[in-house]
Write a structure and sequence with these properties.
- The chain has 286 residues and is of the alpha/beta class.
- Helix content is 37%, strand content 17%.
- It contains eight helices and eleven strands.
- The protein has an eight-stranded parallel β-sheet, covered by helices on one side.
- Helix 5 links the parallel strand 5 and strand 6.
- Helix 6 packs parallel to helix 7.
Length: 286
């Protein structure tokens, strides 16, 4: 396995003091990462395909792979509820992934049925619609040599069993899971247990850590958010939190996965120092 880092990890400093995409890619290389995952494209006024070409050129020049491209999408509410328009939007991003040379892309399922929609509005009621959206996108992406995936995040499609059911409803070899070992805690699920369920479907991996406080206690304050079950979570440096990172990686490695794993840092510390510490930690296991 190779170790990458997500551009999402640096959102807190991007654009500050001249910290542009060129400086960011140079920093990632100096830190010692094998790859640079793109989680957003901060192109400003530059034509989008031109900017994707620039990202590819810069990464190629530094010897960095772009193992994955992440975008948001919503097959229930996106594009005004028009699923065909939402599918076309995601296909456009498949073209952008191709322009960057990425062979894998993650896009979201949905953040849930809106409260004003009358019941039934559970996962089982919308799973077929979600599967249709993912299926149409992955068939398009397959022609370009790009695999697609859904990540366990966003609360509504976060549990391992929901993700597994969705993948099997799509039923396409080009589609699978982006397993984020930390995000299972947002649904109050044991990360190692959940990673074991989704290991056979992995297309890409996010390594994330969280500090966890019981919901039985007081709100710890700034930086913390609530899990679905009311516990408190705060982003942590890899290895400093409560996620059993090494146990999850052992499960993933044992499944036969040999691709990239990307650090995704959400903590309050300086992201460059935090991701560097996380990289050193992961090198002990990878």
């Amino acid at each position: 396995m190779k170790i990458s880092v997500s551009s999402y990890s640096y959102l807190g400093i991007f654009g500050k003091d001249g910290f542009d995409i060129c400086k960011l890619i140079q920093t990632v290389k100096k830190q010692g990462f094998d790859g640079f995952e793109i989680a957003h494209i901060p192109n400003g006024e530059v034509e989008i395909f031109e900017f994707c070409g620039l990202i590819k050129k810069l990464c190629d020049g530094e010897g960095l792979e772009i193992p994955n491209y992440c975008i948001g999408s919503d097959f229930l509410n996106g594009s005004g509820g028009d699923i065909e328009k939402e599918i076309e939007m995601v296909r456009h991003h498949v073209d952008l992934a191709e322009a960057m040379g990425s062979k894998c892309m993650r896009h979201d399922a949905t953040y849930g049925v809106k409260k004003e929609v009358p019941p039934p509005r559970g996962f089982e009621d919308v799973a077929d619609r979600l599967a249709y959206g993912f299926g149409e996108v992955t068939k398009y992406a397959e022609k370009k040599g790009i695999s697609t995936s859904v990540e366990n995040h966003g609360f509504f499609v976060q549990d391992s069993l929901r993700v597994e059911k969705l993948i099997n409803k799509v039923g396409h070899k080009n589609f699978g899971a982006l397993v984020d070992v930390g995000n299972f805690l947002c649904a109050d699920e044991n990360p190692a247990y959940a990673a074991g369920i989704l290991a056979p479907y992995i297309k890409h991996v996010h390594v994330k850590d969280f500090h966890v406080k019981s919901g039985m206690g007081p709100n710890p304050g700034e930086g913390f958010f609530k899990s679905r079950g009311g516990n408190y979570l705060r982003g942590a440096i890899i290895g400093h939190g409560n996620v059993p990172v090494d146990q999850c990686l052992e499960i993933i490695k044992s499944s036969g996965y040999e691709g990239h794993i990307s650090i995704e840092f959400e903590g309050m510390e300086d992201p460059i120092r935090a991701t560097s510490i996380g990289l050193k930690y992961l090198k002990r296991f990878v």
